[in-house]
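Q: Structure tokens for this one, please.
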Amino acid sequence: MATQEILDELRPQMCPMGGSFAGVMRMFSYFLPVNLPPNLHHQGFQLWLSEFFNIWQNIYNQDVWRTRLIDIFSSVAWHNIGYIDWEPWMSQIFTRILRGFSLPMGKLQETPQRYPHFVPEVAKWIVAMNYMETAVEACHYLSILRPELIIPCIIEKHFLAIDNITEPHRFTSIITCLTHIARQIVQQTPSYSQGQIYVLPLLISVLPGIDLNDFKKTSVTLELLDIILMQITCIDCSSAVNIRTDLTEIEREVCLSTSKFEDFINEFLNRIFHIIEISSAEISNAVTTDASDNKLDIDIQPKVTSILFNIVQQCSNPIFQKTREKIMNFLSSQCLSPKVRDIASGLVRALVKGNPVETLKYLLPTIYKSIENKFNNSDSTLLTDYKDDIELTWYLVVFAELLRARGDVLLNYKQLIMSVFHQCIQIVNKNSYNAVAKAVVNLLESLSCSYPVDYRLFVINSDETFDNFLPIRLWGQYVDIDKVQPQFHIPSIDEIDFVYEFVDTFLYPELARLNEKRFKNV
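A: Here is the predicted structure, written as tokens:
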């Protein structure tokens, strides 16, 4: 019984007062089967529902595990409508939920929304769920049934909304709708293939939505770009019109439009660079960042990284080279403030994950020289100075991101990597040391762990001629799960030897130094 095995494995770690409890609940939310047929309910939620409800009812510490638990309850309620009797628990449920809202009693006050997903999950759990289709869901399902009727209409509304300065909220609403019908836009089907004509104009037209003054608009714009670029290949197919004779008029038009991929990527990066520069300049003299500024890292940074990763892992070599060069030129000319380091280093992370060989070939030696020059041209107090050196810290942040590359690629730069650690391992500045520590974690994980190395659904040669292969015909296509052949990194003997050498050279001596200080303070 899978449910019982999961419970037996994770129950010993269920301590609501411990720091690992949120992680345990996250594992339960991922792996507990909640959608079993009625004849197997005794092997499913009946084994744990009462126990989990008692925990939720009786433990009152404010922690993220409560949100995870509500997510579990809502999922099991959603998948087992009519099979669970919630009546005995109804009063406790509503009492606890009302208490969780922290409603003001006798005075006006604002309650910080610590758990943004709390209300939707509670609603889903209580009604389990009263079916009410939203507009975007309706458009999604209708676009599957009759794309030729839905897609042109929404695209037309989108281009009208771009120029509408009196109702800017319409832009956000339509972008959200477009996100839900992205697959129907980009894919070819026997009944509808005209949607591909809109792909490049759509990508270019939404770029003004990346606006630092409106995080909501920026967020939905980046989400649309991410969804579309996840399903297409950024390859200039314009030469295919002179090679192939079997192209339809629509395919010819789409192939010609793909020549604008480079312009789109350039403009996208320019807008991201502008956000980085403006955000960095705003706090250039600040020591710390305000909590209200976290939207840049929490909301924007992951989406920007994902978009660039989707581009570089499925683009042609010429486009990758120009993208890499543009990012390198920008990063090499900047010493970025702490506020924007995450979003800027995310660009490096995307390059490393998308094409580690080419990225490290050009970027790692450059960063190594920058770090070495910094030490050579500075006084001997650089390691012992507690004052943050923004330039050195930035180089170390980029260095840490480069060590996310595959272990077999990192082996080619073993001496260079060891040299950087020899110079920096004992630095005392907090920010620089955190970057070095992150570099250690990334290096050891890259060398010693098993992980996917190719996330593409279609493994294609992006530089292949178009005689027998046309990339646009793969856009948005569904994948037969039985035919997917994931590629994994398996640590080699050389990589494990590198790990042993690194641990012996750096970690053991550092642990010994900590012990010496501990004994001196006793």
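A few notes: The first strand starts at residue 451 and ends at 454. The domain at 135-280+294-354 is CATH 1.25.10 (Leucine-rich Repeat Variant).
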